Amino acid sequence: MENRSRCLIAAIPLILHLGGCVSSPGVQTDAKATAGAANREKTKPSPAVTPDTQGFADAVQRGDAAWQAQDLDRAIYYYVQAMDKSPKDAPTLAKMGAIEDARGNAALAEKAFEMAHSADPEEPRVAERLARLYLKGGKVDSAAEIYTQVLARDPHRPRALDGMGEVCVARSDYGQAIPYFNRALQAEKPDAAAVLTHRGYAKLRSNDLAGAEADLRAALAVAPREDTWRYLGDVRILRGDAGDALESLLNVMDTAQAFNEMGVTLMSVKKYKDAKEYFSKAIAASASWFEAAQTNLARVDERLRKSAE
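The structure corresponding to this sequence follows.
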């Protein structure tokens, strides 16, 4: 079924430019609908001049119902049919992008949100979703450009402010990132757990461990997040509290992975002997982590040899 979805998404540009059609993924139409379509075709004054408003609304409604029922391939099918009747409809394209993003199809989600943004460049929610996808895909400059455009129109949008902070983090400019996160928290209705987590990570990377821990604890008080627990574990191991670090990490991973994570964090600050201890623990704790931990252990041994030379 997912392959059908991929084909439908891939057909979007052709639909928009040529008014093409796609085949239904097992969707059955009743006789009345077929007859109605035929009648509309006969009475249509001129092809592709005015959108089929009723047909568009029906297709969107069916797509929304399928999405709500978690029949995602069927939802995509109906949304594509809707665009065939009313090309370049930004909300419909955004719905398709959201479905593919949730399914982990980053390239398809990005394509849909690019087209939605092109159809309505001034809709900030679409722009922010596209910028977020760019950032996740490593297209940092493209994300920064879009966030900058959004903030030029509204300097107080919390998602765009948070996004620009993440852009600065991606560029290792932590000092510039923190003011963006501060402004996001001061804006109306921010995603406080996310922004506090992002600011906590920026402080962690700036070696402000006390400030990082305060932000991460505050984020967890709002809503538990996997990345928050992970960063808090990193903070605690760097502060020398191995027991609390392990406790934090065990909220989101097993013991062997936690030991490996602790070793990676210590290796990043050149505490190679301590890192070696945790990689050894990871190897002993689980055979499934043997290869990764063994690779990290070999790296630590190599760096220890180089530091001794």
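Residues 14-49 have pLDDT under 50 and may be disordered.
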